[in-house]
Amino acid sequence: MAATLKDVAARAGVHPSTVSRVLRKQENLKILDTTRKRIFDAVKALNYQPDFTARALRMKKSFTIGLIVPDIGNPFFSRITRTIEQLGFEKDYTVIVCNTDENQAKEDRYVNHLLSRGIDGLIMVPAQDSDESINKVLEHKVPLVLIDRLFENIKTNAVISNNVESAYNAVKHLVDLGHKKVAFLRGRNNIYTMTKRFEGYQKAVDEFGLVKSDSLIVGNGFSFNDGYDATTELLNCPEPPTALLLTGNLITVGAISAILAKGLKIPEDISVVAFADSIFSPYLVKPLTTISHPLYEIGSKAFNLLLEHIESGEEELPPTQIMINTQFDIRETTGKAKAA
Q1: Rounded Cα distance, 323 and 163, in Å
Q2: What are the boundaries of each domain within the chain?
């Protein structure tokens, strides 16, 4: 017969409630280290396994949260996912990770699945083709935190970056180097993040009197091929840009590959600034000038915000939006504009 909580308590010489609080890692629990050790020794000796189903029924919680991301292979999302998973583990929550591939139908299906499992809360980066799944989560009154992207017409918790300012500062840096023709390689143009980065780019173009042309705004995807094809299109123009502002990790790899395939040098022939979060950016043959995100901070703030709403119980807290500052690192892929 499997050992029970009472068996552990009897072996450790404590009350069952003490065992429960220790195993739940209750904060601010005042207990001697020797007592804590006796409890864990008893758990090990008896091979005790907590009954999470009974616990969930008793506490009306599943101790499970959902995490929906567009591309787990993207360093931006994978490192945020790693942070949330680790924090969930430390707080005794199971994190169910779902990858949508930027597909709205997959997102809708995952949301339905997670809601049917009785998750306590959801963190997600929406595909943004529709707000239907967001509204469904809110209708079920399940705590929700969005990361990186939001719907401006829906009030909900979110952790986002200062994309307008970040893109503006990147273009200003290029202007200071004498660049007048800066191209913008966007991801999907319906994504909140991209619209804000484009807003910052346009603000700088207007303010500094740069060349303004629809032909300098290219791309509509986040893959290597999207970056490669969009950059090739730009470089084949009769008067190509002297600098590129890239808006994603895989877009950046594709763009640099296209530049090298043309036999051009960075930054002698063309300068590159990228929104990129690869840990390898500083260590490339030409260390990359980047706008990067504090990914651990983004993941931890999203998790803690969700936990705050989960643990508020019946009290409905007002939505909170947290703005995170990016980091601009000037390295070796930006230089003075090539003389005409």
Answers
A1: 10
A2: 5-50, 62-161+295-324, 163-293
Q: 307: closest CA among 86, 145, 187, 112?
A: 145
284 φ, ψ (degrees, to nearest 5): -70, 165
Q: Which CATH number fits domain 5-50: 1.10.260.40, 1.10.3720.10, 2.60.120.10, 3.40.50.620?
A: 1.10.260.40
Over 70: is that where the pLDDT of 283 sits? no
DSSP 230-290: HHHHHHTSSS--SEEEE-SHHHHHHHHHHHHHTT--TTTT-EEEEE---TTGGGSSSPPEE
Q: How many CA atoms lie within 13 A of 292 on its CB side?
A: 19
Least confident piece of the model among 31-45, 147-161, 221-235, 322-336: 31-45
User: What's domain 62-161+295-324's architecture?
Assistant: 3-Layer(aba) Sandwich (3.40)
Report whether pLDDT(236) > 60.
Answer: yes
DSSP state, residue 120: S
CA gap 180, 68 in Å, rounded = 40
